[in-house]
Design a protein that fits this description.
With 97 residues, the chain is α/β, with parallel strands linked by helices. It has one domain: Rossmann fold. It is built from 3 helices and 4 strands; from the N terminus they run βαβαβαβ.
Length: 97
Amino acid sequence: MWNPGKAKSIEGWTALVTGAGSKGLGREIAYELATQCKVARLLLWDINAQGLEDTVADLRQRGVKIPIESRVVNLADRAQIYAGAQAIAGAVDLVRF
């Protein structure tokens, strides 16, 4: 569990998590942001569409009720990154790459 200690609170922010379609770190970061840090909204990016669906389902099963948006983005493709960024412009407070 991430404990920000005396760090600035991110409660109520919108968080973008890349690599969220994996069964590892990205998924757990999304869960911690939603439950421990109390972000208001999650934006999840990954190259794996099925992995993203599985992550959203897992988060819902674990009780996460905040809005979650997922988008297939290949971080090796600059055009996809720019398209994804334009789609969420102004909506993101926290980015984890």
